[in-house]
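INPUT
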Amino acid sequence: MNNFSLWKFSPLAVLLIFTAPLAIVLSSLFGQYTENWSHLYEFVLLDYVSSSFFLVIGVTVIVLIVGTLTAWIVTNYNFFGKGFFEWALILPLAIPPYILAYTFTGLFDTYGDANNLVRSLFNLDDRVTVFPNIRNIYGAIIVFGFTLYPYVYLVCRSAFINQSKSMKEAGKLLGLNESQVFFRLGIPLIRPALIGGLMLVIMETLSDFGAVDHFAVQTFTTGIFRTWYGLYDIQTAMQLASLLLITVGVFYMIERNSRSGIYSSSNSTFSPNYEIQLKGTKSSLAFLICFTPIFIGFLLPIIELILWAFEVNLAFFSKKFIENSLNTIGLSILTGLICAFLALFINFSVRLEPKSVIKRMSSLLSIGYAVPGLILAVGMVQLLIYLDSFTTKIDIVLTGSLVGLVTAYVIKTYALANSSIESGYERISFSIDDSSKLLGSNGWSMLSRIHAPLLKTSILTSVLLVMSDVVKELPATLILRPFNFETLAVSTYIYASEERMLQAAAPAIAIVLVGLIPIILLSKMIRSSRMVQKNV
Amino acid sequence: MRKLQLILILFLFGQVASASEVNVYTSRHYDSDDALYEEFTAETGIQVNIISGKGSALLERLKAEGDNSPADIFFTVDAGNLWRVQKENLFQSISSKKVLDVVPSNLRGPNDEWTAIAKRARVIFYNPKNVSADEILDLSYEDLADSNWKGRIVIRSSSNMYNQSLVASLIANLGEEKTESWAKKLVSNFARTPQGNDRSQIIAVANGEADIAVANSYYIGIMLSGAAGEEQLNAAKKVKMLFPNQDDRGAHINISGAGILKNAPNPENANLFLEFLLSKKVQKSMVDNSFEYPILKGILPSDEIASFGLNFKQDQTSVKDFGELNPAAVRLMDRSGWK
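OUTPUT
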């Protein structure tokens, strides 16, 4: 009994700390409403909402098509380059959306490098523009679609791998062709995982400021910042952010509720997947489908960044590169470990007591992913100051310390860790818990000796996903960091905010390089999970 | 193990106070400024600690930190945010005679709460190929509403603070009603939906996508210097810069400025820091690298900027107006459909 209440109350206490900044943001709803509300309502709110809505729909379409299709192809078919694509398809995760936006304008503006190249290749007149303008909402959709689809790809791939061969055979016996197997069997069965991945994409799209600001697309989030920076009205800005948070929260809950009961963790009739060998046109087509997203989301921006960096500022790599990289790596590892541990701890507690309030609070923490980083930072600053007022009357200890920064990162990225560990837990049968209880393994020993080893892959995935996100994080870092503390994203911003893209290229490449470390480890896991599956 | 704990604590809470330092919250971030700060440390032995970020965000951190804030100096790139800190009553008056002697009173706070460190003008760029001398004779911001500019003007989004300051200055001079009808006509003259930064407006004019652009003066300096690459250099050579409203109040001027905070832990060092920024040597090196206009008399801006003329008339509209009218300017631009 005591043991169980420990598992009930300690996660509650931890969650209280981590959800406090979000609660501070939400508490703005109970504050005053300024006259700016009627102005927003009358002139711009509808625009903000509709463009955010359109953006989310567009991004959803892209990530669903690209993510599911590529995952299906590399899981079920064998073709030229398959071994490469299996892991390379997640490379775009190393590119922050705002950097893809910067490089796209460098490439596709009227006098961008891509247009210039085509003009010189075909000897065209200076006024001919080959590529359409991308500084608009369609450009933003492409940017988010091709940097974020790996979240969908990852969940789909691991779900497809677990789909049994016999299921597909049965489908074919019943007269389904290849594409019908995909649409009528493959996709419906992985729906929960798919929606989970999609939620991550949507939350990140909604919280982004950098890319949409660069394209001058007026989304809900740019509206939040315009209200803050332009109308000098942080109160209304926080209220807008709260509305965003609540909307996302509602969708999150709906998704959760629709999920329950769908799963089966029984693998008894599982027979391993086999791959169909593709030849000729089909093989080329598969190659093209997998290559295109990597090209748009990874190769193209990298090429442009390298071109820029060689024009100027290679000195960055000698001067600040090491220090800023170490800062970035240190923070991301720390955050990754905390997030994974927290998610493990909380999911374990929820497993013991499925109906507890902890589950709801864990969901609240998950939607922290949708809060624009800077708004979260403001909530964070207020919390830290409050805590500081307890510790000492003379000095500020927590504010401007890395504790605040890491806490903000945890709130911002917990969803990534949680989604992976949660889906890992769904695959562990409850009968294992029962057996372990019978054998006298409870609480901590069940977690550390039974669950943790079973969840090894999920835990590692969650650490790596969080790491790759922290490397890219900018707004919260800017405001919460200690004096003279720079991460790679900060160095990039410092140049980019002054419109010096050429100088920004070197630190941007550094972000990608450092971001590749967790991505490559993740890729390795994908490959080895494949091996394991083959040996089942 | 003990040692490890200590290292961890230092890493997490690692603001080891050095005996002599000055803590600066700044929304300016130029490499050249960093070099100047290093020079300050070399000269005085005072360590410069920096946090850079958006002015509004830094202000929010400052407000939350209250009496316990470690910040000595607040350094902005626009007048609006200086005014906000002043209004929050977070600045102390600058007492340094060295500062007060060299900065004209209209470039300081009403009670010397802050001082300008550098100036920038928001000016008009045109493409001489597509614009006749007649059309730009005595051109003013107000003239941009004329119908002969239909489809010929580019300017960036109204979310940009320099546009907000410009419109605030128009409200201060023309009143809200006239400014609103001006803004509506201006929007109908846009060559494209506002997009990109100041430089992309200049590039659009260079390329003939539009005929005139409104942008900050220093960008043309950066482009002409070649620091931004060959293509921007070529684009910059194709355009000319023009100071508007030379017949009346003058071109719109914004400032980058700084003040000492009321609860500054190191006020003497902060004073020394401001004096340093306003010394002849530093002003010259600053404007040569950032292409802004200097505050000190007798210092010339960079060659690239000087080539567009030195003795232009500058709008004296007070910084207080920029700050106070900024929200009104944003609402006005919303109403005018200025994206």
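end of record. Chain A touches chain B through 65 residues (CB under 8 Å).
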